[in-house]
Every structure is written in structure tokens, then in C-alpha cells.
Amino acid sequence: MADNQVWKAVKPYMNGGLSGMGATIIIQPIDMVKVRLQLGATGGPLRVAKDIIAKDGFGSLYRGLSAGLLRQATYTTARLGIFSQLTEMAKKANNGQNLPLWQKAACGLAAGGLGALVGTPADLTLLRMQADNTLPVEQRRNYKGVGDAMMRIVKEDGAAGLFRGGGPTVVRAMALNMGMLASNDQAKEMIQAAGFEKGSMVPVIGGSLIAGFFASACSLPFDFVKTRMQKMQKNPDGTMPYKGPVDCAMQTLKNEGPLKFYTGFPTYIVRIAPHAVFTLLFLDALPKLEKNFGL
Length: 295
Prior knowledge:
Blueprint: H1 5-38, H2 45-56, H3 65-93, H4 101-131, H5 146-157, H6 166-193, H7 201-231, H8 245-256, H9 265-292
Helix pairs in contact: 1-2, 1-3, 1-9, 3-4, 4-5, 4-6, 6-7, 7-9
């Protein structure tokens, strides 16, 4: 099985998706708190989490988990699989040598953008489900699940509605994956060069932590714009608050200042860094596990 060409082609994608889904199950409550903070909830992360539990119960922290898993099964399957293939192709072109940082960044940009195109519908659905309880009672959509949410979005906004905010989603994913994947590979190489064994826990965890920071710092402004674009509703006169992502960014900068783009940064980095750590840990562990089964 390990020499099967179809398995070799599918393996990076399958492992990428499973790694992302495993990390999402662990991180979902933190993601819920992050979204609530970006949508205007006051107080720190712990206060917001406490309010969510008091109002809607502990299970509400996992609202939208089905959409989150679907997003990982599409977006992360694609981005990590594509990144693996692109870096392998680049290494062959470099005669098997380690890639320079700019080539890793280019591979991360491409993988993130292509993966986001696949995952945008699930990403929008996840956000809608997480944000629903922040709306006035009469405006809530009360989705029954990810399937119901997707069908109602298509019914109300057309198929194109599933890709609302797709531009910011793609740009945000490109920034995140450039920061996460390029810095992870670079950090692991530097840690290994310092004397730690390749594949050991120190470079894997160290690289993941460094990757989580750079992924957060690079992507949060784009995530903020994406969230506002996907959550916006029509004004009383029927117009939309923002004409597009650039208009959203400019209005936010003009009316609320540059630091507004980093609203919820402590919560965001607490979510992104562990998600990166768990994703990359699972991504490192799965091939070893599969090897034990001859896969």
C-alpha cells in the first residue's frame, strides 16, 4: 500500500484534512469567543466565555462545529496537501536542498489562496452559525445545522452568497499560510541546525509555536475585514454598509483607527497558535502512525 501511487498522491491531502479537523475539535470554543469579541462583545476572553455559557449553556461554545469540521475537510485538506506537493516540486528543482525562505513563502501563499477558494462556503456558514446568537431575537436565523445554513444562504442570497467575503477570505488565507507554513519549515530547520534531532518533539513543537505567532500577526487584519464583510446586513435603505473589502478596511481605518484591526488579538493568537501546534503535531504524527500499518 505504501508504494501505491494513488495513495501517495492522496496521502498529503488526507493527512492535512484530518490534522485540521482534530485541531478544530480542540480549539472550537476559543474560536467562538474570538468571533464574539470581533462582533462587539465587551470584556476579556474569559468574561465573554462566561457570558456565553451563562446565557446559552456550555454546548453553545461548540455552535458551528459541524461547519468548522467541514471547513477543515475542504480548506485544510487543500492547503496542506497543495503546500506539500508544491514544496516537494520546489525541492526537486533545487536538487533536494532546503528551500530559501522566499520560496517557502511563495508555496504558502499559493496553497493558502487555492485552499481558501475551496473552503469559503464552509467558512461563511461557520461564521453565520457562530454569530447568530449575537443578533436581536427577531433577526436570528436559528440554523438547525450546517446543511440547513448552506441551503438557506443559497435560497436567500443565491449560490454566490456562499462566496460573500470570498476575496478577504482568500487574502487572509494567503497571509496566514505564508506566515504559518513558511515560518514553521524555516524554524524547524534552524532548530535542527542548532543540534536537535530531525523529527523530534523540540523542532516540531518549537516550529509550530513560532508558526502560530507569525500566522496570527500576518492574518488578523484580514480576518477582521473578512468577519465584518460576512456578517454585514443591509441598511434600512437596502444598501450594504460596505461596497467591498477595501471600502470596509478604509472605513474602519478612518472611523476607528488602525488598532481596530487587531481587536481580539490576545484571543486570536491563543486560538491560532494552539490550532497551528495541534495541526502540525497531528500532521507530523499521522505519517508515523500510518507507517506502522504499512501505509
